[in-house]
């Protein structure tokens, strides 16, 4: 089922790639009982979180934010291409893909099982800091897990390398402007999309567990490359969107995946749009 919201003259549609199985074990600084209570219970610590993608059309171009998890990550994922088709969008018709970062649940979906581009006509917008880190050479001192992610990211990006636009703060394409919010990854980026005087913010992985990290923004996860930097970025972005009252589109925010951050009881809460 497709959900949508409007900002100015833009209609932004949300498309699911499926649900990602994860665990409360990735939480580094919260007691299990508290985290269980906040998410409403788990299956021995296991739970599923959504993987949301967002699409809009501007100036005759179809723009998609992130590309999903692909065919081989988990059996509950990789649904984005078929959901796009069900919504009347052929993946070949996507003109621009805006990446919040190049982690597998956001970029594995760029390629098929043979490593070929699914979005064969799309240009990729990604922050230069993110692209240069993952596409660079190993330092020789990286842990094996990081090496494996780098190798996978390079494979995902390979069919697109001639169609990558490395973005920096202050630059804009089709109303999309990067807001660097590093920590989760070296160049993790929120994208502000303008429509007249209005805008929305696609915030990527500012939060993974929306039931926990919005009301408890100091909560850090093992997924973050730099947990302290990610924590500071989360506070900064939550403060910004609450102050400006702009719509947020979250990759892992529960359905419909978009809404407003409000201040509540000395912290933050999320209200669906």
Q: What spatial order of strands do you see in the largest sheet?
A: 1-2-3-4-5-6-7
Radius of gyration: 17 Å
Continuous helix count: 7
Strand content: 25-35%
SS-based structural class? alpha/beta
Order of helices and strands: EEHEEHEHEHHEEEEHHEEE
Under CATH, the homologous superfamily reads Ribonuclease Z/Hydroxyacylglutathione hydrolase-like
CATH topology description = Metallo-beta-lactamase, Chain A
Distance between the termini: 17 Å
**Main sheet: strands, sense, barrel:** 7 strands, mixed
Specify the helix fraction band: 10-25%
Total domain count: 1
How does this model look, in words?
- The chain is 23% helix and 30% strand.
- The chain is an alpha/beta fold and 273 residues long.
- The protein has a single domain, classed as Ribonuclease Z/Hydroxyacylglutathione hydrolase-like (Metallo-beta-lactamase, Chain A, 4-Layer Sandwich), CATH 3.60.15.
- The strands form two sheets. It has a seven-stranded mixed beta sheet. A six-stranded mixed beta sheet has the order 8-9-10-11-12-13.
- A hairpin with a 2-residue loop joins strand 1 and strand 2 (10-23).
- The protein starts with a strand and ends with a strand.
Annotate the secondary structure layout:
Blueprint lengths: L2 E5 L2 E14 L8 H8 L6 E13 L2 E5 L14 H7 L9 E3 L5 H4 L15 E5 H8 L8 H14 L6 E4 L8 E5 L8 E7 L2 E5 L7 H4 L13 H18 L2 E3 L8 E7 L2 E6 L1
Parallel strand pairs: 4-5, 5-6, 6-7, 10-11
Antiparallel strand pairs: 1-2, 2-3, 3-4, 8-9, 9-10, 11-12, 12-13
Q: In a nutshell, what does this entry contain?
A:
With 273 residues, the chain is α/β, with parallel strands linked by helices. The chain has one domain (3-272): 4-Layer Sandwich (Metallo-beta-lactamase, Chain A). 23% of the residues lie in helices and 30% in strands.
């Amino acid at each position: 089922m497709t959900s949508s919201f409007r900002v100015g003259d833009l209609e932004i549609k949300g498309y699911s790639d499926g649900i990602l199985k994860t665990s409360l074990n990735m939480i580094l600084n919260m007691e299990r009982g508290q985290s269980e209570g906040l998410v409403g219970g788990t299956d021995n610590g296991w739970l599923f979180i959504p993987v949301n993608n967002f699409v809009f059309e501007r100036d005759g171009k179809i723009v998609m934010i992130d590309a999903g998890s692909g065919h081989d990550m988990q059996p509950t994922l990789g649904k984005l291409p078929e959901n796009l088709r069900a919504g009347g969008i052929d993946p070949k018709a996507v003109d621009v893909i805006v990446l919040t970062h190049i982690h597998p649940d956001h970029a594995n979906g760029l390629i098929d099982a043979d490593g070929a581009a699914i979005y064969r006509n799309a240009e990729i917008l990604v922050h230069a800091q993110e692209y240069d880190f993952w596409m660079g050479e190993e330092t020789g001192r990286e842990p094996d897990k990081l090496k494996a992610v780098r190798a996978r990211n390079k494979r995902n990006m390979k069919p697109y390398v001639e169609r990558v636009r490395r973005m920096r703060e202050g630059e804009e394409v089709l109303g999309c402007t990067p807001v660097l919010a590093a920590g989760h990854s070296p160049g993790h980026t929120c994208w502000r999309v303008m429509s007249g005087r209005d805008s929305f913010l696609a915030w990527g992985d500012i939060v993974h567990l929306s039931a926990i990290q919005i009301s408890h923004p100091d909560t850090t996860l093992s997924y973050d490359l730099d947990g302290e930097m990610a924590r500071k970025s989360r506070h900064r972005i939550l403060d910004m969107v609450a102050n400006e009252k702009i719509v947020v589109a979250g990759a892992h925010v529960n359905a419909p995946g978009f809404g407003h951050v409000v201040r509540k009881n000395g912290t933050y809460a999320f209200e669906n749009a």
